Amino acid sequence: MTRLLALDVGDERTGVAISDELEQLARPLEMIPRRRGPGGFVRIAALVSQQGIRAIVVGLPLLPDGSEGKQVASTRAFVRGLEQHVAVPIIFHDERETTRRANEILSAEGLSPQKRAQQVDAVAAAVLLQDYIDHQMSRNT
User: Fold this and answer.
1) Which pTM does this prediction carry?
2) In this predicted structure, which of 90-99, 108-117, 120-129, 131-140 has the lowest mean pLDDT?
3) 80: three-class secondary structure by DSSP
4) 44 φ, ψ to 5°?
5) What domains sit in the chain, N to C, each tagged with a CATH number?
6) Residues 6+ apart with CB under 8 A from 92
7) Do residues 103 and 112 make contact, with C-beta atoms less than 8 angstroms apart?
């Protein structure tokens, strides 16, 4: 069985989520700090190897009108670096509203703002991945 990995790439950290082996459900996995050098890419490559990842879904932070802004350029640059470390396909998927939805989920769980801040990127990656999975399933039915 294989899995999907999702990345919510931010300026300070990257939220990571993973699917189940049937590629039907997503869950938050971890957050990786963004630092200079290959450390984050090496960690993602290790997850790809350890978890049997067949593809990586990366959130594309489009502007509300669907156009590409400065953050999209940063995300694309991150992916260019990541491509040097992994040999699986990397798929971009619209991530508009994922952070807002992640904050709603964490708020509903009653977490303090500090706890939400620690988890929001990984939860946003899970929201992104679940949206991608649901989109793929609806296309195949």
Assistant:
1) 0.92
2) 108-117
3) helix
4) -65, -40
5) 3-139 (3.30.420.140)
6) 57, 58, 59, 60, 79
7) no
